[in-house]
Automatic annotation (TrEMBL):
<protein>
    <submittedName>
        <fullName>Isocitrate lyase/phosphoenolpyruvate mutase family protein</fullName>
    </submittedName>
</protein>
<dbReference type="Pfam" id="PF13714">
    <property type="entry name" value="PEP_mutase"/>
</dbReference>
<dbReference type="GO" id="GO:0016829">
    <property type="term" value="F:lyase activity"/>
</dbReference>
<dbReference type="InterPro" id="IPR040442">
    <property type="entry name" value="Pyrv_kinase-like_dom_sf"/>
</dbReference>
<keyword id="KW-0456">Lyase</keyword>
<dbReference type="InterPro" id="IPR039556">
    <property type="entry name" value="ICL/PEPM"/>
</dbReference>
<dbReference type="InterPro" id="IPR015813">
    <property type="entry name" value="Pyrv/PenolPyrv_kinase-like_dom"/>
</dbReference>
Length: 240
């Protein structure tokens, strides 16, 4: 078992902050996180690209390469991905990849997983299905796809939008792989998710969107004369 795979413990989940540049990764490492993931939305948007169109792969590879020196484990969000992209991520130091089916052909996605594992067996392949992202909670289709991806050699499964406790418990019981869910503010707590047997909780684009909101809020506060929090990281700290 690889060090990254070992972090996926049902009932004691890996909390994975998703980052978009070196600075966001470094503050996560300093906060005590041993692993980070990239966010495809954050990487795409910070480079002036739309998410969901498989355009941010080269920027993601460059970011993973830059993060290697931080000493943390890195999982790359490759959107739909490709074998070549996954092999390149592994070559520049990535510990894992996330590949999504976008509710396309499950057999084709399973072939991608199988081909990636054949080329880079130690790369942790997190197989995402969008049945709860693009459909309204199709649990039967979710289980069908996840079993297919497990049979193809995936190391973990990811179902963003999976939030109902009964559905989470059903996936944990039916699929013999670590389950990754997306943290939803106002939804189930980390403790609740752990109690259901979840092995990985991703923050997705949450941190990136929070940073955008903070940028706009502070600029507006200065314009209006409102108080601005004084405990922000200083210039020297960030530059260092």
């Amino acid at each position: 078992m690889t060090p990254f795979a070992a972090l996926h413990r049902p009932g004691d989940p890996l909390i994975l902050p998703n980052v978009w540049d070196v600075a966001s990764a470094k503050v996560s490492v300093r906060a005590g996180f041993a692993a980070v993931g990239t966010t495809s939305l954050g990487v795409a948007a910070s480079n002036g690209l739309p998410d969901g169109e498989d355009l941010s792969g080269p920027d993601t590879v460059r970011l993973v390469h830059r993060l290697e020196r931080l000493g943390c484990l890195v999982s790359a969000d490759l959107e739909r991905g490709s074998v070549d992209l996954a092999v390149t991520v592994a070559a520049v130091g990535g510990a894992g990849v996330n590949v999504e089916d976008g509710m396309g052909d499950a057999a084709a996605h399973a072939r991608l997983i199988r081909d990636v594992k054949r080329e880079v067996p130690d790369l942790f392949v997190n197989a995402r299905t969008d049945t709860h992202w693009l459909r309204t909670g199709d649990l039967a289709e979710t289980l069908r796809r996840l079993r297919h991806y497990a049979d193809a050699g995936a190391d973990g499964v990811f179902v963003p939008g999976l939030t109902a406790p009964a559905d989470i418990a059903a996936v944990v019981a039916a699929v013999p792989l670590p389950l990754n869910v997306l943290y939803v503010p106002g939804g189930l707590s980390t403790a609740d998710l752990a109690g259901l047997g979840v092995a990985r909780i991703s923050l997705g684009s949450l941190l990136f969107r929070a940073a955008l909101a903070a940028t706009a809020d502070i600029a507006a506060a200065v314009r209006s004369g409102a108080a601005v929090r004084a405990d922000l990281p200083g210039y020297q700290e960030v530059n260092g």
